[in-house]
Specification:
The complex is a heterodimer. By secondary structure, chain A is an alpha/beta fold. Helices cover about 40% and strands about 20% of the residues of chain A. Chain A has one domain (about 30-169): Glutaredoxin (3-Layer(aba) Sandwich), CATH 3.40.30. Chain A has five helices and seven strands, in the order αβββαβαβαββα. In chain A, helix 2 runs parallel beside helix 5. Chain A is globular. By secondary structure, chain B is mainly alpha-helical. Chain B has a domain at about 25-65 and about 70-75. The mean pLDDT of chain B is about 70. Classes of the chains: A alpha/beta, B mainly alpha.
Chain lengths: ~170, ~80
């Protein structure tokens, strides 16, 4: 009898704590809809993620000042070359302040996939993956399926397997 | 009084929510300026890297010489 009046308050407190924890950890999660964006291509028109439905899309956030990104990009370019005819699209989102730096490196590495410019870092801030490079794999329905934070040597094998699995769906 | 306490507890919980996940002050994608070679402690990065390599070989010791990489938070 003495404990019953306290129960609603405790549950209220618990709910408040849960809500606070959920608000603190809000970012892109697997199975959620990928946040849409429209960005300018390095040497072409704007490109919108929402218009790529029906294709498996890999979004890779990179910068010229990020060492592992420079190692990863040629691996991603190979992946793009191999699967672009099968409904795969790789979007390299560059977050440099100076687009010329991105243009120079993209030219040097001979990147053939669309390189998008996020100079004000709004899109990378929305995805908020807390690592550089960061890679998001999006399925044909526009849902986030895999998140990769950072780059480790050999992870491109995992990328390829995941792309193949998503293409088969 | 009890209501006051409850409100205080809720306010406290909301304030602590910000501490739920420790986050870096500067996010990895915001470290462009920090990753600039001019932000290195050493005056000449290349020669200090060389001398550190020599020390590693001679003494068989590594580490405690600062942070590797460009400070971009890359894993």
């Amino acid at each position: 009898m003495t404990t019953t009046p306290h129960l609603p308050r405790r549950s209220l407190l618990g709910l408040a704590l849960l809500a606070a924890a959920a608000a603190a950890g809000a970012s892109v999660a697997p199975r959620s809809q990928a946040p849409d964006f429209t960005l300018r291509q390095i040497d072409g028109p704007n490109l919108r993620l929402g218009e790529q439905r029906g294709r498996v899309v890999m979004v890779n956030f990179w910068a010229t000042w990020c060492g592992p990104c420079r190692i990863e990009l040629p691996q991603l370019a190979k992946l793009h070359d191999r699967y672009r005819g099968s409904g795969f699209l790789l979007l390299g989102v560059n977050i440099d302040e100076d687009p010329n730096a991105a243009r120079a490196l993209a030219g040097k590495l001979g990147l053939k996939f669309p390189v998008l410019l996020d100079t004000d870092k709004k899109v990378v801030g929305t995805y908020d993956l807390n690592a550089m490079p960061a890679t998001v794999l999006i399925d044909k329905d526009g849902r986030v399926r895999h998140l990769h934070r950072g780059y480790r040597e050999g992870v491109e094998v995992t990328y390829e397997q995941q792309v193949r699995d998503l293409l088969k769906e | 009084m009890r209501r006051c306490l409850l409100v205080l507890a809720l306010a406290g919980a909301a304030a602590l929510g910000a501490c739920a996940a420790p986050e870096p002050w500067v996010k990895p994608h915001e470290r462009e300026r920090l990753a600039d070679p001019i932000m290195q402690w050493q005056g000449d990065v290349l020669s200090s890297k060389h001398s550190q390599h020599v020390r590693d070989i001679r003494e068989g010791a590594r580490g405690a010489n600062g942070v590797q990489g460009g400070g971009c938070g890359c894993k």
